[in-house]
Specification:
This protein is mostly helical. Helices cover 47% and strands 9% of the residues. It is built from six helices and two strands. It has a two-stranded parallel sheet. Helix 2 links the parallel strand 1 and strand 2.
């Protein structure tokens, strides 16, 4: 899921678009009752997460966005992405063991 609700033919995102995406994600999270971890990919996702109305204690993992611009201009952050995304693995593995890692944290 991308917090951007749809392509607007620009890389700029208005507050209204960000709010629309956050509202849609809030609705989606209601349907996804087994979600335990959220990977916030990029600064927009991090900003939008504060607007999400979800009462669960979900673990969040922050990551740079894997865009070509980050690759070119923030290579050190871009290189960290695989390790950041790998932090979700314990949550995937616990699904088969019916146990949940500690929640309500930022990794």
């Amino acid at each position: 899921w991308n917090i951007v609700p749809g392509w607007n033919r620009t890389i700029k995102l208005t507050s209204a678009e960000l709010n629309k995406g956050a509202d849609a994600l809030s609705e989606l999270l209601i349907l996804l009752s087994n979600v335990r971890v959220v990977v916030l990919v990029g600064k927009r996702a991090l900003r939008a997460w504060s607007r999400i109305n979800d009462r669960r204690s979900l673990t969040t993992i922050e990551s740079a966005h894997p865009s070509p611009m980050n690759h070119a201009f923030a290579r050190e952050e871009w290189d960290k992405i695989p390790d950041q995304w790998a932090k979700v693995l314990p949550f995937l593995q616990c699904q088969t063991q019916t146990e949940t890692p500690k929640s309500s944290t930022t990794v």
